[in-house]
Structures are given as structure tokens and as C-alpha cells.
């Protein structure tokens, strides 16, 4: 026990270039999606279609960050689902508050 | 000591409740970080969904882009509000600065994964190098946000003429420059309030993140993790830092793009 605590150097495992390349590839994808969003913001008309595309691209980026950067996909399945499944409650919140906002709009204007 | 621990672990009577096993195959710290992040997702989601609800309760600006004038009668178009860039005073550069901030934060997230990857390999030099880059990215992002806030608060050269209820409960019509929690030149009062609360709460998370990053950078550099035998702390702080990036991706879309 004491010997282990006094150990000052760990064995360094050499770099796995394929793994590092994959990280940079994910970074490239994230930046490319952001660039596409920028392009769309200035070329497309504002409207529901554009907003829908923005939201799809954002969730796509979120998937890359959570699965590749946070390694959620590599965790045990129960842990994965205990993080993802509770997010279903947000769907209700979106529906409820958008309805609320629309009703306030109808009352006010 | 180790013999007693094994004896409890294999006891058929006590089964998995005897201790010595890892629920969900993750360490305690990592598991708790994940559940903290889940609760934080709900907090940020509540903020952003509230933004959406308040936004749809106001009419959208319907005129042409060139004729845009801030008013508390309708919700502004973000790319016409956030169009300034440091050292380019008066030049209309829509969303360029916030695009740069997004780039900085994504890049600092990338250097963070590289630090975590180096931690898996017990490579102290690489961990220290990538932690330093991540730290720099975080500090740069915070500085950009400080400029963004300062510009938002001070406002444009011309301001906007608004009729509103001031803090003394009087209805006044005057030229407004910049923004505070009562009135702002860009749109309804709620626009600036949401800006301050959403980007402020995110900025607060980034600030905490920078403190944690510095701590991990320092401890990695002086060899605390090497003596401990593993670099799991880098992984846990990495999870938090990626989360901050994840939230920014959503703030960017809902506040600046839509």
C-alpha cells in the first residue's frame, strides 16, 4: 500500500493516432455544421422551415458532443438511458409553454 | 485487509449488496457528474423554453432589414442586434463576433477531449499541454463575452426612441441607449432580461469551468494525478466542460440564429 502511494511515475502508453484523428474529425464536423448554419442564416428567408432546420442541425451537433466528446455511448446502457430518457419531459414543457405563449399573444395583440 | 474485502464481495448471502462492485460500471464521481449535468440540462432547458414562450407572445418584426429600428412593440431580429465587432466601430457585421465565440468554445472542447485522451494514456506532458490550451480557450471566451455584454449594455450610437413605464411608474418617451433590466433599445424589456439571464448563467458556468480547469491543470502539472495513479479528475472536469459547450450550441441557435 505504502509502496503504491510513493510511486511517482506511471507507464505512458504511446499515442494512438487513429483515435486522435477521430477527435479532430468530429471537431471538423461540428465546425462544418456551424458554418452551414451561418450560411443558412444569411441566404434563407426567415420562417418555420429555417427554424426547423436550425433545430435539427443543433440536435445533430448535440449528439456529436454527447456521444463523441462525452463518451456517453460507451457508458453502460442503464446509465445511457437514465440520462437520455428523462429528457422526454422537455417535450411536454416545449408544448405547454409554446401553447401558453401563443395564447398570451392572442390576448395581448 | 484485502482478504476481508474479497470475502464480503464473494459472499453468496450478501450478493451484490456486499459492496465492492461498481453500479453502472462508472466511478462514483463520474456518475454524480452525469446526474448533476442532467439537472443542469433541465435548468438551461427551462431558460431557453421560457425564451421561446415569451418570444412567441410578441409579434415578430415584419419590415425590411434595412429599415429595422429597435422597439418594444415587437421582438427584434437577433442578427440586427448582435452585429458589432471589436475595433470595427459602426461596421455592420452580423453574428460574426458570436460566430468567433462559438469557434473558440468548440475548439476548447476539442483540446479538452485531447487532454482526456492523454489522461487515459497517463501522458502527463500531453495532459498539461492540452489543459493549458483548454484553459486559454475558456479565458478567451469569457473575455469575448465581457466585451459582448459591455457593448450590449452601452448600446448603439443612435439609440431608439421608446415609450415605456420607468422605475417610478411613470410613462415616459425618450431616447434609450443600450440595455438594462427595465428598458432597452433593441426590443421588449424581456429581450434584454432573457439575454442577461441566459448568457449570464452560461457565463457563470464557464467561469466555474475555468476555475476547475486551472485546478486540474495545476494538479496535473505538479504530478498529483501521477501519484494518485489515474487521471480521472481530468475526465470528470472534461464532462463539465463539454456540457458548457453543449449549452452554448443551444444558446447560439435559439438566441442568435432564430
From TrEMBL, chain A:
Keywords: Cell membrane, Membrane, Transmembrane, Transmembrane helix. Coiled coil: none annotated. It is a multi-pass membrane protein. The keyword Transport does not apply. It is found in: Cell membrane. It comes from the Bacteria. Its main location: membrane. One of its GO terms (cellular component) is plasma membrane. The chain crosses the membrane at residues 23-42, 48-66, 78-98. The keyword Ribonucleoprotein does not apply. It holds the Pfam family COX4_pro. This is Cytochrome c oxidase subunit IV. The lineage of its organism: Bacteria, Pseudomonadati, Bacteroidota, Cytophagia, Cytophagales.
From TrEMBL, chain B:
PROSITE patterns: COX3. It is a multi-pass membrane protein. Residues 1-258 form the Heme-copper oxidase subunit III family profile domain. It comes from the Bacteria. GO terms for molecular function: cytochrome-c oxidase activity. Keywords: Cell membrane, Membrane, Transmembrane, Transmembrane helix. The keyword NADP does not apply. GO terms for biological process: aerobic electron transport chain. The chain crosses the membrane at residues 31-54, 95-118, 130-149, 194-218, 239-257. Belongs to the cytochrome c oxidase subunit 3 family. PANTHER family: CYTOCHROME BO(3) UBIQUINOL OXIDASE SUBUNIT 3, CYTOCHROME C OXIDASE SUBUNIT III. This is Cytochrome c oxidase subunit 3. It comes from Belliella buryatensis.
